[in-house]
């Protein structure tokens, strides 16, 4: 089966700072790194590294060939990544040296130049039973979700960065919803009911260091996080999402997929960077068999 991911592709610029800057504050950075990122690219890399066949639907600018090449190197099918006139998206990420927390500024660029024709051309190759994944960093989301649902794909939505209107519009087409605790509260306030009662078969609410809650048809099961000493939390949620969906695609139960994804996300936060440092399946399995390694 295939995971079709309509997702953003960014150049991530990491600035390491003593702490997350306050409004009006100027900070000196201790280092600067640039790598592949974007929630979509991160999820595609994670799912591919977890053993799934992933086809990325997206766009880069005239200077963005390096990003498409990098995705291909990581095992992602890049045939449906278009080159457009707008510049490749990018993110400015401040990472606190003390605890790995971050703050992010996004420039959408080419990610917002994806049109319905691009999505339709890609999904014309999809098969019933494939998975369709999307987030809130591209255009054409509504059309894509409706089209995927009509084609019989499992429709999965990572509701970030949170947008109430986009999330409400997506709900009728969803089989799987994943969002963090704050996003769950925001969506609940927008819809007037908790996420467990929104009619989506499977909902995962991630809780950071506290793990996650999984709601299957409203029934809740909680999972604990794997304790580690974080270096950089950027991309941890994307790693988790990619691994969960890859696990389901490979025939795992949801509980098995979540447990695998918890270990992958834990290993990811011990590394600085985003897509370029997402662990592969062999690394995650080795990490699981050495429970004290990299943990604090």
From TrEMBL:
Protein name: Ribokinase
Record keywords: ATP-binding, Carbohydrate metabolism, Cytoplasm, Kinase, Magnesium, Metal-binding, Nucleotide-binding, Potassium, Transferase
EC number: 2.7.1.15
Subunit structure: Homodimer.
Binding residue positions for substrate: 10-12, 38-42, 137, 238
The gene coding this protein: rbsK
Residue ranges of every copy of the Carbohydrate kinase PfkB domain listed in the record: 6-279
Localization of this protein: Cytoplasm
Pathway the protein contributes to: Carbohydrate metabolism; D-ribose degradation; D-ribose 5-phosphate from beta-D-ribopyranose: step 2/2
Catalytic activity: D-ribose + ATP = D-ribose 5-phosphate + ADP + H(+)
GO molecular function list: ATP binding; metal ion binding; ribokinase activity
Cofactor note: Requires a divalent cation, most likely magnesium in vivo, as an electrophilic catalyst to aid phosphoryl group transfer. It is the chelate of the metal and the nucleotide that is the actual substrate.
Function: Catalyzes the phosphorylation of ribose at O-5 in a reaction requiring ATP and magnesium. The resulting D-ribose-5-phosphate can then be used either for sythesis of nucleotides, histidine, and tryptophan, or as a component of the pentose phosphate pathway.
Active site per the UniProt annotation: 238
Coiled coil: none
The keyword Chaperone appears for this protein: no
An example Gene Ontology biological process: D-ribose catabolic process
Listed Pfam families: PfkB
A GO cellular-component term linked to this record: cytoplasm
Family to which this protein belongs: Belongs to the carbohydrate kinase PfkB family. Ribokinase subfamily.
Binding site for ATP: 180, 206-211, 237-238
Main location: cytoplasm
Organism annotation: Poseidonocella sedimentorum
Binding site for K(+): 232, 234, 268, 271, 273
UniProt note on regulation of activity: Activated by a monovalent cation that binds near, but not in, the active site. The most likely occupant of the site in vivo is potassium. Ion binding induces a conformational change that may alter substrate affinity.
Essential cofactor(s): Mg(2+)
Record flagged with keyword Cell cycle: no
